[in-house]
């Protein structure tokens, strides 16, 4: 089966005054269906920039980005939105939940935007949140949830539309070590159960070792 994500010659540079800063330099990366890959590197190594590129969140990149077999690097804004909606899920270091909506509503909303019926979206949200141990917290707003619970809701939201690929940027970086371990374990378990692939950026060697494969980014070069 073809790769869920494939980049070829992916590069990104910025100009500051007379200086050119090469953040990504010819990145070649492939993620297979169902594979969970750790993107390891220190702060400033370009991990977030790489995730922004493959998540089609901003332009200015050179090279090829294929998502679910579709060349996406040169799509217009509408085309990138469609690919993100149909194939990608996102988890960030900070949960970015909608504060005026409760847990289940935060997971239902992206499904409604995707075109799901309300009843089906509600059932899907309940299933995901219950699988993450939040079946008793469905009607709580983010401010009523702990940091770990908020991040679990963010994981459920990312998986709500059955994405082929989940992109996660330091998804447990804002949690204490014990909570981070529990949230990551539940995240990885649910991603595997759902059959999605994942590319997870982290600077934590111990957490990266729990994933299927590790790639390292240093000074914009992937190894």
Automatic annotation (TrEMBL):
One of its GO terms (molecular function) is ATP binding. Gene3D superfamilies: P-loop containing nucleotide triphosphate hydrolases. GO terms for biological process: lipoprotein localization to outer membrane; protein localization to outer membrane. Its EC number is 3.6.3.-. It holds the Pfam family ABC_tran. One of its GO terms (cellular component) is plasma membrane. Keywords: ATP-binding, Cell inner membrane, Cell membrane, Hydrolase, Lipoprotein, Membrane, Nucleotide-binding, Transport. It comes from the Bacteria. Residues 5-223 form the ABC transporter domain. It is an enzyme of class 3 (hydrolase). CDD domains: ABC_MJ0796_LolCDE_FtsE. Belongs to the ABC transporter superfamily. Macrolide exporter (TC 3.A.1.122) family. PANTHER family: IMPORT ATP-BINDING PROTEIN (PTHR24220), LIPOPROTEIN-RELEASING SYSTEM ATP-BINDING PROTEIN LOLD (PTHR24220:SF689). This is Lipoprotein-releasing system ATP-binding protein LolD.
